[in-house]
Design a protein that fits this description.
- By secondary structure, the chain is of the alpha/beta class.
- Helices cover 32% and strands 19% of the residues.
- The chain has 7 helices and 9 strands.
């Protein structure tokens, strides 16, 4: 972390981007449910879902999370203190003016939305003020994106593969990015609380 104390680095974070795949809903619920609100920064999530099914993520999380939960809409501003999900069938990006954009570009590692696409876009916009997190999953999506966050000086964390429902994605992210933290969900939750909660 460039010699910067962790508490100072976390205090400078302006956005959190999280990627998850197989087993990701349960992991996200363990991370986020019960965290006190309001949150200080926005949380942007890509969770792999079939693109031919309507997403129920907003409904699932809105009743359990103490902040506003929305599906990201193109052109809408990224508002601090909200939880955003990528809509199925589209890549989610953040533009330089910190508004959302959606893309129909081909899938990345068979995934659209792609965790790599979101993390790389957020790294370009937020730089060292981004926290990137990769959770459970059965492919390698998120590894290149987390490496981009790391290269831009952002804070990086990966779920401990030993407790992940599917270890492939955390293992790939660890190998590619050399993250700041590899933690079980309980400890990762503590880190996120220190970032999100004033």
């Amino acid at each position: 972390m460039s010699g910067t104390p962790a508490s100072m680095h976390r205090a400078a974070i302006e956005a959190v981007a999280i990627g998850a795949s197989a087993g990701g809903i349960d992991a996200l619920l363990q991370l986020l449910v019960g965290l006190p609100g309001p949150w200080r920064v926005p949380v942007l999530v890509v969770l792999h879902l079939p693109d031919d099914h309507e997403s129920r993520l907003v409904e699932v999380f809105a009743h359990r999370i103490r902040v506003t939960v929305e599906e990201a809409r193109p052109g809408a501003p990224v508002v601090p203190g909200r939880l955003y999900f990528a809509p199925p069938g589209y890549h989610l990006l953040v533009e330089a003016d910190r508004t959302f954009a959606l893309s129909c570009e081909p899938p990345v590692l068979f995934s659209r939305p792609s965790i790599d696409v979101l993390l790389e876009a957020c790294a370009d916009v937020y730089g060292a003020a981004l926290a990137g997190v990769v959770l459970t999953g059965a492919n390698h999506d998120g590894a290149a994106g987390l490496a981009a966050v790391r290269q831009h000086g952002g804070w990086t964390a990966v779920q401990d593969p030993a407790e992940a429902a599917h270890a492939a994605m955390p293992l790939a992210a660890i190998e590619a990015a050399g993250p700041d933290h590899v933690l079980p969900l309980a400890q990762l939750r503590e880190q996120l609380q220190s970032i999100l909660c004033p």
